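Structure catalogue
Derive tokens from sequence
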Amino acid sequence: MEFLFQPSRYKVAYGGRAGVKSWSFARALLILAATKKLKILCAREYQASIKDSVYALLKEQIRLLQYEGVYKVLQSEIRGKNGTEFIFRGMKNNPEEIKSTEGVDIVWVEEAQKVSNESWEVLIPTIRKEGSEIWVSFNPRHESDPTYQRMVKTPPPGAVVVNSSWRDNPWLSPELEAEKDFLKETDPESYEYIWEGGFEVVRQGAYYHKLLMDAQREGRVCSVPYDPAVPVDTSWDIGVDDETCIWFWQAIPGGEYHLIDFLHGSDEGIEYYLEELNRRKYVYGKDYVPHDFKARSFAAGGRSAYQIAKNHGRKMVVVPRMNPLDRIQPTRTLLPRCYFDKAKTDAGLESLRNYRREYDDDRKTYKSTPLHDWASHGADAFGHYAVAYSGRKVVSADVEEPPPMEHADNAWMGM
């Protein structure tokens, strides 16, 4: 945590439990603010009251550092004798209050895995004082979370990003070490998430959890190179107000399906995705698109996405409207034949891992229907291809219907 004492616009620490992130951030801020007057904003996505903030942690660190003579702990803020201020804000419900917070030297965003893109877009321009810094600490949850994408996957220029785990904690207690070892032995998936800073594993209600764990264990999540001799098919799920997702497939003779790429985005029209497809320089086969490709207002100039894609020479196969549940069984059948490029399809795999049944809070049980959230778009795009190759009827004015899957061995009806 030495980097906390060196100037940098962004200082990011992420990882698993007992990685001393919060303690280190609190102590470093108290030490720095004791030497010069600073205005420090302690922010988090949700803060209904001061109890939801790092106020109690800072208060305890003041005691441990014997800084009682340096700081005065008030009811809702902490002040230093040199004029330093620690103030506490929630971002989600009070964006205007965040915008109006002037003169901040350092903002510390704790539990940042919960912070939305909208909150980041409000906060970052607010911290505009010359030499100001943005400190971020969190335990990762999902790879698709905005904070992980923004601060770890593609960090801002000059950002210092540190992964911290229990291994970096010389004060790890025997009790915590015993808990860690027991969880590793009894529940390795939870251990990876909780202690090693991996991504949360959705198991309860998840449709494809076991099949994706099998793929991981069997080495089918790996490097999957593009084979120029095999055409690349794509399968789509389109969104106007939410995500559009596209999988890139190669059906390999012998019964394997290679997922070599994944494209996703939002707030873009059909032209953007067609340009992205061309930029990848694959030799394309067919595009498996949902029924609303012809109807949805996904394009400019009054033309449908189908018309525009057709004018670009795309060979589209339209998958008919169906209940989302009808895509699940074909997907389950196809998954054991799939190989995923680990680097290029990570976001798509994350959506498949998190695609799950909706939970009924009143009845405390899972519903029979899938939850419609960020994960459903990537899962539906995958499912459109699976449905087409299950032998179900699909429609296209441009290309013939795809045949039933050659290597199914009647497995479509048996699983």
Summary: The first helix runs from residue 21 to 35.
